Amino acid sequence: MGEMVSWTVADAVDYKGFPADRSKTGGWVPAALSLGIEICERLSTMGIAVNLVTYLGGTMHLPSATSANIVTDFMGTSFLLCLLGGFLADSFLGRYRTIAIFATVQTFGTGLLAISTKQPQLRPPPCQATDITKCQHASGIQMGVLYISLYLIALGTGGLKSSVSGFGTDQFDEKDEKEKTQMAYFFSRFFFVISTGTLMAVTVLVYIQDEVGRSWGYGICSICMFTAILIFLSGTRRYRYKKCSGSPIVHICQVVVAARKKRKVELPSSTASLYEDYPEESRIQHTYQFRCLDKASVVTNTDYSEDGAFVSNPWTLCPVTRVEEVKMVIRLLPIWATTILFWSTYAQMITFSVEQATTMQRSIGNFKIPAASLTVFFVAAILITLGAYDRLIIPLLKKRKGKPGFSNLQLIAIGLFLSALGMASASVVEVKRLAVAKANGTTGTTLPISVFYLIPQFFLVGSGEGFMYTGQLDFFITQSPKGMKTMSTGLFLTTLSLGFFFSSLLVSIVKAATGSNGKHGWVGENINKGRLDCFYGLLAALSFINFGLFLLCASWYKRKKAKQVPEMEIIVKGSSVEEKL
Q1: What is the Cα Rg of the chain in Å?
Q2: Are both 198 and 277 inside the same structural domain?
Q3: Of the candidates 228, 243, 258, which is a domain's last residue?
Q4: What residue ranges are annotated as transmembrane (predicted)?
Q5: Do 130 and 27 fall within a single domain?
Q6: Domain encompassing residue 161
Q7: What are phi and psi of 405, to 5 degrees?
C-alpha cells in the first residue's frame, strides 16, 4: 500500500479517472504542451488588437475615438470573460475541457475574421480622401459581421486564458520537492512565453497583415490555434486532472448570503462558539476584521432539524475558514482597485500611439515599418526588463540585503510609476508632433517627424508592464486563499478588463466634454486636429494620483498568514456542536 501511495498523486487523476501515476503523467513536458495554446492565443489576440485600429480607420473609415474604443472594448471583454471561463472550469467542465472548447471557439472567430476582411462586400468601398469624414463609413451589417468575429475571439480568449496557467501547474505535485522546483521554473518562464507570442504578433503577423493581406494574417492565426489544439489534445493520456471542487464565486456568495440572513444574530463573546468543519491542518486563524461576516459561522436553532439533528446548509452556515477566505479576498480589493488604471495607460499603446505612428515618418531606407510594429519596442522593453531583473537586480539584492528580489507590492509600485512617466513622455512628444502637423497642414498623410520619437513612451510603459504583470500575478496568487487559484487569477485579469473599459469611458467623456459646440475636441475624427497631448497629460496626472493612492493602500495592507488553530478553540461539526450548545 505504501508503494502505491508513493507512485500516485493524491489529488489528481488520469484521463480514465484513476489516481494519476507519477511516472506516467504530469511533469514539465505535459505542462509545456499547454503553453502552445497560450502562445497562439497571445499571437491571435495581440496580433489583432495592436493593428485593429488602423483597419477600423483606414478600411472601415471609422473616426479615431470610435476606433480606439472598439479596440479597448474588445480587449476589455476578452479579459472580463475570464471570470466566466474560470467559473465553468471550477464548477462543471474542468480546466482541460474548458481549454479545448474555448480554444476551438477562438479558432472559429479568427477564421470568420479572415473571411470578413477578404470579402469586398463586408467592408466599405476604398476611399482616397485624406479627410476620413468624407469617406463612406462601414454599414451596420459590415460592422455586425466584424463584431461577431471579434467577440467570438474574445469569448475564446476569456474561456481558455483563466485555465491555461492553472492547468499547467496541475501537472506538478507541490508535495514532491523535485516537481515543486519544476513548477517554479514553469511559473518563471510563463510570462516570457507570453511575451514571445506577443513579439511574433507585433512583428511577423503585423507585417503580413499590412504587406500581404489582412485575411492572410488572420487566417494564419486560425491555423496556428487549430495546430495548437491538436498538440494540446495529443497530451491527453499524459495529463493530470483535478476534479471540479466548486466555484470560489459560489463560496463567496454563500458566506455573504449566510451573514445577511443572520445579520440580527449577536456574535458570541468567544470564537470557540463559531462553526468549523475543516481539517485542523487546513484551517485559517480567525481574525477580527470585517466581523459582520463572522455571523455566517454562528450556530443557531435554525441549523437543526425538527428531530434535533444538526444540518449544515452552506447558504445558512459557513465554517470559519471559509469566512476567513472571503476576508482575505476583501483585503486584496484596495490593491486590486489601484492597479486598474495601469491597464488604461497600456490601452493607449495599442490605440492612440499606433494612430500617432501612422502619421509619422516610418521609413528606413526602402523599408517602411508597419505602424503597429512600433509596439515591438513595447515588447522588447518587457523582455529587457525581465532579463535585467532576473540576472542583475535579484542577485544584487540577494547579495546586499539577503532578499530574493523586490516584493510583489514593490514590483507593482515600480510598474505604476513607470507608466505615469510613460504618459508624461507621450504628452511631451505629442506636443512636438502636433506642432509639426500644424506647420505642414493637418490633412497630410505623413508628417516630417520620425516615428522613433514614440520609443520612450513605448519603452517606459512596456518596462512598467514587466514589473506590473509579474508583481500582480505573484500578489494575487500568493495572497489569495489556497483553494481559490482560479479566483485569484480572475481577480488579476479583471484589472486588465476594467482598465480597458475605463479607457473607453474616459475617451467618451473627454470627447463629449471637449468636443461640444462644433469643436473638434481633444480626441475625435482626426488626431492631427485634436489635442491628444492634453489627453495624455490627463492620464499622466491620474496615474501619479493613483500611484499615491496605491502607496497608501500598500502601507495599510497586512499579509495574514494562515496558522493552525488549536482544535478546542473552535466548535466543530458533530458531537462537539451538541456539547457546546
Answers
A1: 26
A2: no
A3: 243
A4: 70-89, 95-115, 190-209, 215-233, 329-349, 369-389, 409-429, 449-470, 491-515, 535-557
A5: yes
A6: 10-243
A7: 100, -175
pTM for the full predicted model: 0.79
Q: What is the pLDDT of residue 415?
A: 94
CB 85 within 8 A of CB 164: no
Both 38 and 111 in a single domain? yes
Grid coordinates representing 248 are 470560489
DSSP states along 186-198? HHHHHHHHHHHHH
Strand partners, 571: 275
What sign has the CA pseudo-torsion 388, 391, 392, 398?
positive
Kindly state whether residues 147 and 224 are assigned to the same domain.
yes
54-69: pLDDT as tens digits: 888 888 888 888 888 8
Closest CA to 371 of 379, 361, 380, 381: 361
pLDDT for res 574: 41
Q: Residue 9 forms beta bridges with which residues?
A: 20
Find cell 505642414 and name the residue: 440
Domain boundary among 223, 243, 263: 243
C-alpha grid cell for residue 382?
Answer: 518587457
Give the whole-angstrom CA distance, residue 535 versus residue 427.
Answer: 8
Decide if pLDDT at 561 tops 50. no
Helix (H, G, I), strand (E, B), or coil: what is residue 19?
strand
What was the pLDDT predicted at 110?
Answer: 93
What is d(CA 374, CA 203) in angstroms, rounded to the nearest whole number? 9
Same domain, 96 and 213: yes
The CA distance from 506 to 264, in Å, is 42
> Do residue 252 and residue 233 come from a single domain?
no
- d(CA 124, CA 143) in angstroms, rounded, equals 10
Percent of the chain with pLDDT over 70: 90
41 in the same domain as 90:
yes
Q: Compute CA distances 474 → 32, 255, 488, whole Å.
A: 20, 26, 10
- If asked whether residues 66 and 182 sit together in one domain, one would say yes
**84-103: per-residue pLDDT in tens?**
888 888 778 888 999 999 99
Q: Average pLDDT, stretch 427-433?
A: 92
Number of structural domains, the chain?
2
Q: For position 54, what pLDDT does the model report? A: 85
Three cell numbers written together for 508: 467618451
| Grid cell locating 332 | 486584496
Could you report the per-residue pLDDT of 179-202, keeping only the tens digit for each? 776 776 676 577 677 777 888 888
Q: Which residue has the higher pLDDT, 236 or 372?
A: 236
Give alpha helix (H) positions in 208-247: 214-234
Instruction: Please report the beta strands in 265-329, taking only residues with DSSP state E, as ranges in sequence order.
Output: 275-276
In a domain, 348, yes or no: no
Percentages of the chain per state (helix, strand, coil), in multiples of 5: 70, 5, 25
